[in-house]
Amino acid sequence: MYPIHILFEDEHFFAIDKPAGLLVHPSPIERRAPNAVALIREQLGIKAFTVHRLDRPTSGVLIFAKSSEAANKLNLCFAERRVQKTYLCVCRGYTEEQGVIDYPLKEIIDKVADKMANPNKPAKDAVSRYRRLATVELPIPVSKYPAARYSLVEVKPETGRKHQIRRHLKHIFHPLVGDTQHGDGKHNALFRHHFGLDRLLLMATRLEFVHPFTDENIEINAPVSPWVDQLFTQFGWQGHYPAAANSSQEASVPESEPRFW
Questions:
Q1: Smallest Cα–Cα separation from 106: which of 54, 158, 161, 156?
Q2: Would you give the distance in Å from CA 225 to the centre of its chain?
Q3: With contact defined as beta carbons under 8 Å apart, do 53 and 85 qualify?
Q4: 125 assigned to some structural domain
Q5: Is 253 part of a structural domain of the chain?
Q6: Residue 235 CB-half CA count within 13 A
Q7: Catalytic: which of 17, 55, 179, 184?
Q8: Domain Pseudouridine synthase RsuA/RluA-like: where (predicted)?
Q9: Apex CA 53: angle with CA 52 and CA 54, to 5°?
Q10: Would strands 217-221 and 59-65 be described as parallel, antiparallel, or unpaired?
Q11: Is residue 260 scored above 80 in pLDDT?
């Protein structure tokens, strides 16, 4: 069960804190899997018009419109890059303190959902800005190294390509922890074994835009989940990220204490 938690609402839009593991809308691949659009209708009685998407394993701020007119206006804001998105992630190794990843990405084609798509399309421009917030070295051997190093990174993508942050961080040799498609299996296994982690450590923590109806500056923030907060506290990363909410919205929080090193 995924309870829907609203972060922001007015007469035109509303934003939820999407749990990791929840689809945004129905999928032709997993027709019976829960999705945010259906749960919003069931739990809140609201017809949700999709404006943007988050990958299934990504948690955080997800905004919807309450009408097709509102959806069209905010879709235009996204298309014209007038919406600023901020993500928090954990990646392998120590990244540079800050940087810009300007690396075009080819479209990811799904064999089932994108049967009519052209696999030979040229790569599209993709830009992500990042800054390192904190680091940790764990005294746990991994691969050929005696210890494992990780960075807490804030990323602001300027474009919206599929899996952009995940692919960009992999491109600079700092794949995200918990990423089963673009990540490092050895480090994913380390987090699974020592911390009970079975999710991607990528969270959409902030969304900012000028309201297309009122011209107000809107900022919507989502805290990390209590379990992620517990993990980050163990790493000494307090104060570098949005604090956890009082209650969990994630179904994947372990019932028992994670095993630390």
A1: 161
A2: 12
A3: no
A4: yes
A5: no
A6: 24
A7: 55
A8: 12-171
A9: 140
A10: unpaired
A11: no
Residue 119 lies in a domain: yes
Please choose, from the candidates 54, 152, 145, the residue with its C-alpha nearest in 3D space to the C-alpha of residue 94. 152
* Residue whose tokens read 């992620």: 228
Given CA atoms 16, 22, 27, 31 in this order, what sign does their dihedral have?
Answer: negative
CATH number at residue 56: 3.30.2350.10
Region of 163 (left: φ > 0; alpha: ψ -120 to 50; beta: rest) is: left
Each residue's pLDDT tens digit, 54-101: 999 999 999 999 999 999 999 999 999 999 999 999 999 999 999 999
Contact 40, 25 (CB under 8 A): no
Please enumerate in sequence order all residues whose Cβ is within 8 A of that of 114, keeping only pairs 6 or more positions apart, or say none.
none
Tokens representing 260 are 């630390």
Per-residue pLDDT tens over the stretch 122-137:
999 999 999 999 999 9
Instruction: Mark whether 55 is an active-site residue.
Output: yes
- Rounded Cα distance, 66 and 148, in Å: 46
**In this structure, are strands 59-65 and 202-210 parallel, antiparallel, or unpaired?**
parallel
Residue 207 has a pLDDT of: 98
Tally Cβ neighbours within 10 Å of residue 203. Answer: 27
The number of distinct structural domains making up the chain is 1
Q: Where are the beta strands (DSSP E) in 75-172?
A: 84-92, 98-102, 127-138, 148-157
Domain encompassing residue 125: 6-234
Residue 243 lies in a domain: no
